[in-house]
Task: structure prediction
Amino acid sequence: MEVLSSISDIKRILSEHRIKGKSIGFVPTMGALHLGHISLVKRAVSESDIVVVSIFVNPTQFNDKSDLKNYPRTPELDLKLLEKSGVHYIYMPSELEIYPEPDTRVFDFGQLDKVMEGEHRPGHFNGVAQVVSKLFDIVEPNRAYFGQKDFQQLAIIRQMVIMLKLKVEIISCPIVRESDGLAMSSRNLLLETAVRESAPLIYRTLSEARNKVKELSVKELIHWVVTNINNDTHLTVEYFTLVDCLTLQPILNWPDSESIIGCIAVRAGKIRLIDNVFFN
Ligand code: PAF
Result:
């Protein structure tokens, strides 16, 4: 496992592998790694000859300055966790390396980023697209791996790949959960003890909601989920919405879509958590 920080080094090394016909798998991350990230790395290792993990906390995707400042950074632990994962290269660039000058590109994702995270975190997905397109340009992976917890991010990245006519295959990997059901997230590290104890209610509620499709309308089910979670004093639902998996547009009635996902964002104390479950 080799740690690299300069664009020229990583480009040179990866082009040597490419010339030898090796395929490249890529897992972009913002560090503060957990077993969810490791599951992406393991999948990449099982499918690609050479695996690259990037660790870069991307400032352009944070619409809230204090969120960027407080985002957990654990580089030493990250490297330790990656040591036995089978990854070949860790790419840890500086901000100047990625943004030698401000990135002024504006992506048009149509309706995809007008809902959910896009609506509540203006500019977030533009920043994600900026950094992921730059990283793809540097690593030129055959495959790139993303977790389904960030379901809307996956849709945005797939759309970006189409728009920029990139050759990379985007692979989505299932959410990895703690034993109490809480979706693994770097932000879980920031939860205060009492809030952490409340947080599993999010997934418990979503799981129970899946069994209520036959008895409740879409509107009633949304109301039930929001009320059930808001009953806990540490949790406040920012949004819960049932959307079509492809268009990400909200459904009003169950027959409106053949593949429905319920996506949620919850304020857990000072921390914002997201999660999702499929409904059919
Ligand atoms: O999902 C993340 O960790 C980030 O949004 C990503 C894809 C690494 C871009 O900074």
Summary: The mean pLDDT is 98. The longest helix spans residues 124-139. The radius of gyration is 19 Å.
